[in-house]
């Protein structure tokens, strides 16, 4: 007889868009700004609404974040702790909740914060949290997440294959599939007129430069968040 608790643990709990954003923020800041972690409510609000490393842009207030934190705590994905000066702070519990390690948590966090991405995008962007030396390392992390039932490919194998996490509620997941299908149909061109694919190394260099700029913006926004909290 199969242990039902093991089966339930293997299936990720769908999260709202707000809860996914908060979870992604908590994992991200634990890695990129450990001196400011665990996080205050005000710092989480600022990080959720920052302009860099976020897609889509969101405008969450304290009530939105508190509701998301309640959702995450009920799921076992976050904890509330007593900070210094009697200020409550929050930390994630993603390693225990989803059985993650450093490379898989970095990749999953990028998917939570930016939505579906290609392997090259994940490798470049996740490396700000954990160094993924090449596409093989990124593929290994993605494959582990797929094996855990946390990530799945949205498009067929090949150049530009896109991956997404599996924490979307069913209706949002269906919308995402329809959106990706529409995008694929719109970008399809006849074989004889299809432009040559850009050199992957050039694409990665451009993405790396953009992410360096976004990381600098992150640091500025983190400092502002500290002042506000």
Would you summarize the structure shown here?
The chain has ten helices and six strands, in the order ααβααββααβααββαα.
Write up this protein.
- The protein folds into two domains: 16-98, Arc Repressor Mutant, subunit A; 102-183 and 199-212, Arc Repressor Mutant, subunit A (Orthogonal Bundle).
- It has helices at 4-10, 17-32, 41-48, 62-75, 94-98, 102-114, 119-126, 135-147, 170-187, 200-228; strands spanning 39-40, 78-82, 88-92, 117-118, 151-153, 162-165.
- The protein has a three-stranded antiparallel β-sheet with strand order 1-3-2. Strands 4-6-5 form a three-stranded antiparallel β-sheet.
- Residues 1-9 have low confidence and may be disordered.
- Helix 2 crosses helix 4 (62-75) and helix 7 (119-126) packs across helix 10.
- Strand 5 and strand 6 (162-165) form a beta hairpin.
- By secondary structure, it is mainly alpha-helical.
At the first level of CATH, the class of the largest domain is Mainly Alpha
- Order of strands in the sheet with the most strands? 1-3-2
What's the domain count?
2
Give the helix proportion (percent range): 55-70%
The fraction of residues assigned to DSSP E strands is: 5-15%
CATH superfamily of the largest domain: Winged helix-like DNA-binding domain superfamily/Winged helix DNA-binding domain
Continuous helix count: 10
Give the overall shape.
globular
> How far is it from the N-terminal to the C-terminal residue, by CA?
51 Å
Q: What letter string, H or E per element, gives the SSE order?
A: HHEHHEEHHEHHEEHH
Quaternary structure classification: single chain
Question: Taking Cα atoms only, what radius of gyration do you get, to the nearest Å?
Answer: 18 Å
Low-confidence segments: 1-9
- Beta-strand segment tally: 6
Summarize the main sheet.
3 strands, antiparallel
Q: Which architecture name of the largest domain does CATH use?
A: Orthogonal Bundle
InterPro entries: DUF480, WH-like_DNA-bd_sf, WH_DNA-bd_sf
């Amino acid at each position: 007889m199969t242990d039902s608790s093991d089966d339930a643990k293997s299936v990720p709990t769908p999260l709202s868009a707000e809860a996914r954003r908060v979870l992604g923020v908590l994992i991200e800041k634990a890695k990129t700004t450990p001196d400011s972690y665990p996080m205050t409510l005000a710092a989480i609000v600022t990080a959720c609404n920052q302009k860099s490393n976020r897609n889509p842009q969101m405008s969450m207030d304290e009530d939105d974040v508190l509701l998301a934190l309640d959702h995450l705590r009920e799921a076992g994905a976050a904890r509330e702790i007593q900070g210094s000066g009697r200020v409550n702070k929050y930390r994630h519990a993603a390693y225990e909740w989803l059985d993650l390690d450093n490379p898989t948590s970095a990749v999953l966090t990028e998917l939570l914060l930016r939505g579906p991405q290609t392997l090259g995008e994940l490798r470049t962007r996740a490396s700000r949290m954990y160094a993924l030396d090449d596409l093989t390392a990124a593929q290994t992390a993605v494959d582990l997440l797929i094996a855990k039932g946390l990530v799945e490919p949205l498009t067929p194998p090949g150049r530009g294959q896109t991956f997404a996490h599996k924490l979307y509620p069913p209706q949002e997941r269906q919308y995402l599939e329809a959106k990706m299908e529409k995008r694929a149909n719109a970008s399809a061109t006849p074989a004889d007129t299809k432009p040559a694919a850009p050199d992957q190394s050039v694409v990665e260099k451009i993405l790396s430069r953009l992410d360096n700029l976004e990381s600098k913006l992150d640091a500025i926004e983190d400092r502002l968040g500290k002042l506000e909290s």
